[in-house]
Design brief:
The chain is mainly α. Helix content is 66%, strand content 0%. It contains 6 helices and no strands. α2 runs antiparallel to α3 and α3 packs antiparallel against α6. The longest helix is centred in the C-terminal third of the chain and has 29 residues. The chain is globular and about 50 Å long.
Length: 196
């Protein structure tokens, strides 16, 4: 899974940095006449590193003795959030906005948190928290991962609600709605897994 994650995120970074506009080929290109506002820019700029940290947490499941439900959930998060990062990077490129750095851009992403990456967004884990998760014994890892991912997802939902209230760009509003729905479903599942 880690190799697949690295491959997908490498592709995402390459497309974003190159400003590669192949969205038209996929039928998802947005006409230039559609307007966006600062809330849309802020949402994409914040959600990219937020999603990237979720993928760091997915990477930490590699080699762990997980229940089948958690293993499937980790794969589900990977396959959903990787293309969402690519989509948001594409929007920022189209809007002539900088693409933010993420934990995936740093070799020591889950060390002791001495990078300048933002951790003050809703649900973001600190470097110390990620280090604690990485160091957790196998029997402690799964419940801790679920607890942290619930908090992380709730933060994404809060960000999505803000975008839906304040944003203007229709595709961004649609993505926010998707994030709100899918991540709430995943929270419900994770809470059931913790209770079982």
């Amino acid at each position: 899974m880690k190799k697949l994650t690295a491959l997908l995120l490498g592709l995402t970074t390459a497309l974003a940095l190159a400003g590669c506009g192949n969205d038209k080929e996929n039928g998802s290109d947005i006409p230039d006449s559609e307007e966006f506002n600062q809330a849309d820019v802020d949402f994409a700029t914040a959600m990219i590193p937020h999603h990237a940290q979720a993928l760091v947490m997915v990477d930490l499941t590699e080699g762990r003795d997980l229940s089948p439900d958690v293993d499937r959930l980790a794969e589900q998060i990977l396959t959903a959030q990787t293309p969402e990062i690519e989509t948001m990077a594409g929007w920022l490129t189209e809007w002539d906005q900088p693409i933010p750095e993420t934990a995936r851009d740093h070799e020591n992403a889950h060390g002791d948190g001495d990078s300048d990456l933002p951790t003050d967004m809703p649900g973001m884990m600190s470097g110390e928290e990620l280090a604690e998760l990485e160091a957790a014994a196998d029997e402690e890892f799964e419940p801790l991962w679920l607890e942290m991912m619930i908090e992380h997802h709730q933060g994404a939902i809060d960000m999505a609600k803000t975008e839906r209230a304040d944003g203007e760009y229709q595709p961004t509003l649609e993505l926010a709605a998707t994030i709100e729905t899918t991540q709430q479903d995943e929270i419900d599942l994770m809470e059931r897994l913790l209770g079982s």
